[in-house]
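ZP: hey, is the cytidine-5'-monophosphate complex queued? I don't see it on the tracker
AM: it wasn't, my bad. submitting now with these inputs:
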Amino acid sequence: MNDSPRVIVALDHSTADEALALITALGDAPYAVKVGKELFTREGPAIVRTLVARGTPVFLDLKYHDIPNTVAAACRAAAELGVWMVNVHASGGPAMLRAAREAIADGAHRPLLIAVTVLTSLDAAELAAIGIKDSPEQQVLRLTRLARDCGLDGVVCSPQEIAAVKRECGGGFLTVTPGIRPAEVSLDDQQRVATPASAVGAGGDYLVVGRPITRARDPRAALSAILDEIAPAIRQA
Ligand code: C5P
């Protein structure tokens, strides 16, 4: 755990050129990157191959959700691309989650398999509209337990949920948390935020950081400040 990168830089860029310019600007500090739907849809697996070939760990954030056979095949394809982390929607159900896990279990390279529980854009009214009467919090915990029971490695959650996830599932069950904002930085559109040090102090494993690094005047300095901020909390963990 201590050897893996703790900060995942969200490459929310439109083109490979923009994303690679940022990577060049970031220098040699230890970090991973998140490739999401926009960049992947525009640039395809070539951008992932380029990043992997440079030695940059890639979280492929495509949130697979489909029938078990299709999700299993997609996860296998992601593993073959050499990604470090991949994710699926826990609401795809236990058969889909188990199929995803089994698909990557015996490959030459096994990515971390992370579940998305409830999208933060879904509030109680949105959940009710799709037939879920429980609160978002209850649904998050239900899907977190399901992901753990199906052998996934962890969940995406807000920094405020790290402690509950760890209590429920144990310290080894990983948390991947967006909503990270260094104290002096704009919140942008994030509501439930934590500083890098408080997220790691709460037991958080991987911090997803986008705009505080990608829109910084000096992205390398912004990343380096975050790594310096979390170093004491990592040593204490
Ligand atoms: O720029 P910022 O640090 O807010 O970027 C956070 C990244 O994490 C973005 O790629 C965003 O889509 C993603 N994310 C999020 N909140 C979630 C799930 C994913 O901000 N609940």
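AM: back. The first strand starts at residue 7 and ends at 10.
ZP: great, adding it to the tracker
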